[in-house]
Amino acid sequence: MAAGRRGSRKRWSTFERDARAGHGPLIAGIDEVGRGPLAGPVVACAVIMPPDARAIRGVDDSKALTAPERERLARIIRDRALAIGVGAASVREIDRLNIYHASTLAMRRALGRLTLAPHHVIIDGKAIRSLTTPHTAVVHGDARCFSIACASIIAKVTRDRLMHSLARRYPTYRWDHNVGYATADHIAGLGTAGITPHHRRSFMRIRQLSFDFDAPSEVIVDVPVDLLTDDLAAELPVDVSMLDVGRIDSTTQTQPDMMRG
What we know:
The protein has 261 residues and is an alpha/beta fold. 35% of the residues lie in helices and 14% in strands.
């Protein structure tokens, strides 16, 4: 996507203006990232941006932005947002539920972590009955709606930082470059070292590749999920203390400030 198109995004979309007129000023945009990779969680974000503020110049679908652009915009979004909620579903949940239902679970968790109750929700793609929250679905919403694009950027930055952290423990798979997607270097790592607890077994092509399926099936990833501060990338070793905003682990949701996943 041309830089000129990215730089020209200066106003809210018709979808958002209509939602605000019909439901109220607080509109939460939601998006998720990580449906396609072979490894790592799926991460979702819900964002409520100030309704009376101009859209941030340069915000677009996270896939259309470079990594430095996403990092820069994530800092601005964090500073200006009225509320941000980040949720995730673990590899184990992806394998148990399937990626569609795990993605919906991550979205519900993101919505549940908002500190403000939105008047309405807009999501990228098609309507999701199991989301249980009234919403408007916008196909290609991450490229068409400002608030969904903001959520897309935060979700992408969050998941990338998580995979970069895991890459330090599992350097063979080059997750610092491919963030878990099925690139040639990732496949080569699978061929030489087999799978890790962070690989999605349901995504593996059993007939084409041979892996060590005797590895432990329970996955606990003790890393922060809300990675919105400048220095947080340095705080991602697996033994880091959990932030107040949550983590990916295998605990239940009986503790409201923690996310299961």
